[in-house]
Amino acid sequence: MAVKKTFASDNYAGVHPEVMAALALANNGHESSYGADTFTQQATSRFKELFGDQTEVFFVYNGTGANVLALSALTRSYMSVICAESAHINVDESTAPEKFTGCKLLTVPAPNGKIRPEQVEARIIRVGDQHHPQVKVISISQTTEYGTVYSTEEIKALSDVAHCHGLLLHMDGARISNAAAALSMDFKSFTIEAGVDVLSFGGTKNGLMFGEAVVFFKPELAKEFQFLRKQGMQLHSKMRFISAQFIALLSNDLWKRNALHANTMAARLAQGLKGIKGVQMTQQTEANGIFAILPPAAISKIQEHSFFYVWNEATSEVRLMCSWDTTIEDIDGFIEAVRSALEGLH
Q: For residues 56 and 48, what is the distance between their CA atoms, to the nearest angstrom?
């Protein structure tokens, strides 16, 4: 029986057929384990083509593992990490970042998901004071948790502040493909060329079954990462099944096709919701996420049509996510469900 599609998360979507075909191909015969296989070599080469020969890439299971291990590689336990209050590492990764890095997360308000250079400057205090955590990393999300997208200039401004103070810039790129599609840029333009030091490159939210990559743009930062990955329980023995998926994602512009489609569906949904009385949009729809306030009395009724999450229970702000497999029929049906539910309140 077919399961009704939802707007809860792009994690809810299935595996893209081209990725599933790549998994089937990788399932033929025997290959060396723990990354010493031909698929991992090919996937690594794809990343080097995207970001440059100096790139070091390591494949892991999931986004939390990618973020936590990336931060672990950049810090020691007496340090701190600056991030937005809404950052995934602060809100949705339990206490994994604190437990495994030992670092303190220093959060700053970010109503649209983005942090600004002056906020970072204000957090860099008591440098050299043994009684205070020493700031080492700025971590940003691209796209942000509010579906907004940092411009190249905004990222460069943050990296300039970071490097001026001897800090490093980490990017949580769980939805980096959606950001690249929204910016109409290649990945390199707003990562390494904008001063990002380490990137968590997402695949699961863009058509993969599982798998993320930690990408280092300075080889010296990756010197001990293989040991951290093993210690962090993210070393996949049959790594070819992660790598094969990335080969597919980074071939024939699959990443772009998937992301552009999800972004286009989100734009259509946002436009439709704007025309409904009683719906208040709270963020610009720049990628594949829509944020809006709905009348509390209507939410459960609308969720009967397609499930989604209430992002802020205090304000009845909801999050609606579009995926690579969202259809126009899904969008138009949901818009009609919202319109019907709100009309039923009067």
A: 8
